[in-house]
Write a structure and sequence with these properties.
The chain is of the alpha/beta class and about 325 residues long. About 35% of the residues lie in helices and about 20% in strands. The longest helix is centred in the middle third of the chain and has 17 residues. The structure holds 2-keto-3-deoxygluconate (KDG). The site of 2-keto-3-deoxygluconate has 11 residues, from α1 and α9.
Length: about 325
């Protein structure tokens, strides 16, 4: 049984062969995208075990996603193939610099049909951590119920619940997001928001205010991401900022938050201190932005250790 279980939608993602409005782009590269499966891949590359619960369409893109995730070592035994609904699709558009826009074609997708009957209690209960994000409850009412049920199962087995709000305003309004995500947060042990997300959800101002509010809500371990400056971490005993790493060149910032979550959860699985978890999370985030895909930059354990020790690989 995997150490970390996660659930959510993974789509086929088409990234443009050049910059500019999509109407002028003629070439695309096929990749995969899904916050939760990115975290699962990140954990597997670091030597942990991770399982991903979802639905995919009975189509070529569904087969592609399954094959890629299996190839990364993610346990896909809990993925259902939906005979009616298709695998979701998204496109990336790169405007100036590294400003990336996304267009989703995922309404009514197979993953959006997930429901609580898809959950195997024992599969979740035997994990050490359940990782969820704010994307899944935005997909449909049945996905929302599935997330709530997964939380209930995790609680009944006493396993840790980790939550990344991942607010996607292309999927729901801020009021809808706030209503649901504020209900989810107090049920979680670990919460990993970006500063902007924490402020939007909690109505707070600044990092320390956000951390205090999350602690009041009963969250035990908090990491608030502050972009290139790294993150702030806190629990009942400490609150401090851990500087970020310079990634060198930023190619695509999407996926950095998932890499961060994988690094942080890896530290938790290894019983590391809060500060050590933050250092691993920051390093993973920095490495993730150096490639154009959402997960391709995720390091292996050796690559992470080399990066942390300032070692460079011999290239030739
Ligand atoms: O965190 C990166 C994800 O946003 C991306 O891989 C796609 O899961 C995705 C989403 O719903 O936007």
């Amino acid at each position: 049984m995997p150490d970390v279980v996660t659930l959510g939608e993974t789509m086929v993602m088409f990234s443009p062969g050049g910059q500019g409005p999509l109407r002028y782009i003629n070439e695309f590269h096929k990749r995969l995208a899904g916050s939760e499966s990115n975290v699962a891949i990140g954990l597997c590359r670091l030597g942990h075990t991770a399982g991903w619960i979802s639905r995919l369409g009975q189509d070529e893109f569904g087969q592609y996603i399954l094959k890629e995730l299996r190839g990364e070592g993610v346990d896909v035994s809990q993925v259902k193939i939906d005979e009616q609904a298709p695998t979701g699709i998204m496109f990336k558009e790169i405007r100036s610099g590294y400003e990336t826009r996304v267009s989703y074609y995922r309404k009514g997708s197979a993953a959006s049909q997930m429901n609580k009957e898809d959950l195997d209690q024992e599969y979740i209960g035997k994990a050490k951590i359940l990782h969820i994000t704010g994307i899944t409850p935005a997909l449909s009412p049945t996905c929302r119920d599935t997330v709530y049920r997964a939380i209930e199962i995790a609680k009944s087995y006493g396993i840790l619940i980790s939550f990344d709000p991942n607010i996607r305003l292309k999927l729901w309004s801020i009021d809808q997001a706030r209503k649901i995500l504020i209900e989810i947060i107090p049920k979680c042990d670990i919460v990993l928001p970006g500063l902007d997300e924490a402020e939007l959800l909690l109505g707070t101002s600044g990092v320390e205010d956000s951390i205090d509010r999350l602690l009041q809500l009963g969250v035990k371990k908090i990491a608030v991401k502050v972009g290139a400056e790294g993150c702030w971490v806190a629990d009942a005993n400490e609150k401090c900022q851990i500087s970020g790493f310079n990634p060198g060149q930023i190619i695509d910032p999407i996926g950095a938050g998932d890499a961060f979550a994988a690094g942080f959860l890896s530290g938790i699985l290894e019983n590391k201190s809060l500060l050590e978890c933050a250092v691993m999370a920051n390093a993973m985030g920095a490495l993730a932005v150096t490639t154009s895909g959402d997960y391709e930059g995720l390091p292996t354990r050796k690559e992470l250790n080399d990066f942390l020790n300032g070692r460079q690989e011999i290239a030739r």
